[in-house]
Write a structure and sequence with these properties.
mainly alpha, 14 helices, disordered N terminus
């Protein structure tokens, strides 16, 4: 029975000051604005302004040197049309998609999950050694890793050619795309391994034991027991590593996009257009197109992530 001296929920709502629902912290509008304003200014200075400046440059013929570096003209969407009609831009987009699919979607996903699954029941010392080696490749600076791989693949004194007794074979010239794909798998698998290790720990052991007693094979256990539990982790991991790989500039340190643009991913193409050739307007337009492609990839994965499994 309710005490008549104690106000009910409706009474409590009646005695709240006006606007209390939107002022949970009780700071008031002025103090709350003072706390938020520095962060908003930083976001505007380092994110919003550069983005708007990039959009503006993409609509001009701005270059690093020459007449158009000082006498800038508005060209509208010409830079975007030229980029979409540029065979080198389309080639770099295709190379980038192959690079992302081969090294991230397939390579890092498969190797990361395989390592996490295999190390579940491994001895503690073995697990520590393998995880340390995989993490070491991830945390080393890109320049150091690139030097190591160049030394390993050197045509004259490289480790691979020494082991295969095949001196003079130029791996980075004959197979440039395969080299950067394997390089990215080797370098970036650590994140997938760590994420899948955490995801597999959420699979109830009783479910795995039930599948074993029911005589389920390994692939059946993965498909019917493990994957439903880690589906969201798979999609999240694939989304992150796809975007990271799409924007990765590290392959430039290995092959510089050569030979004959055979390993020129979009970040390398943008660098060459904007920095080497000095075409800032054209490079900015191509950067916006790259951003839109990233957005499409992200929306595709998010749509899959929100779809409920049947």
């Amino acid at each position: 029975m309710t005490d008549p001296a104690t106000p009910g929920p409706a009474g409590i709502a009646d005695v709240r000051p006006a606007g209390s629902d939107s002022d949970v912290a009780g700071l008031g509008r002025g103090k709350a604005s003072a706390f938020v304003t520095p962060a908003l200014l930083l976001i505007a200075a380092f994110l919003v302004f550069p983005a708007l400046w990039l959009l503006w440059i993409g609509l001009t013929d701005l270059t690093v040197s020459g007449r158009t570096s000082v006498d800038v003209s508005f060209v509208g969407l010409d830079n975007y049309a030229n980029a979409l009609d540029d065979p080198l831009f389309r080639n770099s987009l295709w190379i980038t998609l192959l690079f992302v699919f081969g090294s991230a979607v397939i390579g890092q996903n498969f190797l990361g999950f395989t390592l996490a699954w295999s190390l579940r029941d491994a001895a503690r010392w073995l697990r520590a050694v393998v995880e340390s080696l995989v993490l070491l490749a991830w945390i080393l600076p890109s320049s150091v890793v690139a030097v190591l791989w160049i030394a390993m693949l050197d045509r004259d004194a490289g480790t691979i050619n020494q082991l295969l007794d095949n001196p003079g074979y130029a791996w980075m010239i004959r197979h440039p795309l395969a080299v950067i794909i394997v390089f990215n798998i080797w370098r970036g698998t650590a994140f997938s391994m760590l994420l899948y290790s955490a995801a597999l720990s959420t699979v109830p052991p009783s479910h795995l034991e039930t599948a074993r007693l029911a005589g389920a094979s390994g692939p059946q256990t993965l498909r019917d027991v493990v994957f439903p539990h880690v589906r969201a982790h798979v999609l999240t991991n694939t989304l992150l590593i796809s975007l990271w790989t799409f924007n990765d500039f590290t392959p430039y340190l290995l092959t510089r996009g050569e030979p004959n643009h055979g390993s020129e991913t979009l970040p390398i193409f943008l660098y060459r257009q904007g920095i080497d050739d000095g075409a800032l307007g054209y490079g900015a337009a191509a950067s916006v197109l790259m951003l839109l492609i990233n957005l499409v990839l992200a929306l595709f994965y998010l749509r899959l992530l929100r779809r409920r499994p049947k």
